[in-house]
Structure prediction request, 242 residues.
Amino acid sequence: NKNFPNISIEGEQSQLGATYGLAYHRLSNTLFAGSYQKRHTSYGSANSTGAIYKIVNPTDNTTSGVSLFTDLNVLYGSNIAGNNPHPNGATDFTRDDASYGMVGRVGLGDLEISEDGSHLWTINLADRYLYKIPLGSDPYNPVAPASSAAISRYPLFHLCDADNDGSIDGASDIDIRPFAIKPYHGKIYIGVICTAESTPTVFSNLTARVFTFDPITLVFTEVLNFPLNYNRGNGNTNAVPF
Prediction:
């Protein structure tokens, strides 16, 4: 863009596809990017919902530093990060209606580097697990794990009673949707939306929550809970607001 001549181009859509989670590894000067579900666009060169790409030297104004770092779908031997909802794989995105309902349900959420630089944290939006991915023994040269056995993962779908039915939710419950991550002072903060989709008339079940995760004790603790059932406006002035 002529109005922003100093923008550095580090990766293209054909290489990375749609991304949301980005994590910068300072010791190796590497930027990691996770596959994200959006309509009308691919998952990049790997064409996989579980792909994590790396961009080496992400200020050199060249796209040659982009490569696939790891693919959770390959490591686990199945589409653990969800099936690709795009029609005809990576070639036709015109009729892409199936993508609407899959945003936030397949692919990867946030990415973060651990405070000591030894691991990459991410959330798999399909199975709703928190993943701890080792980066190898050399802090200046991140290496992807050779198998899923090297990865630790922790379920997030059972964090709370999202639908208020009297029992802690399990893998079959659909209301808990984790996404955000932030390592801070030895804890991992997890952002979660309780969608209330299983109880669509109970607006009070629509909430946002934050939990801490202790990587040593493996204990989750809720630290913030606030409602999302406030009135919303509508572009159609004849419609009744939510």
